[in-house]
Amino acid sequence: MGSRDLPGSIFSNDLDREFWRDLDPVRRRALGQYFTPYEAARLMAAYLTGSSGPLLDPASGGAVFLRALSDPARNLLADGREVVAGELDPILAERTREVGAMLGLGARLEVVEGDYFDLPGSRRFGAIIAHPPYLNHAGFTASKDRKSTRLNS
Question: Is residue 71 within 8 Å of 39, Cβ to Cβ?
Answer without folding.
Answer: no
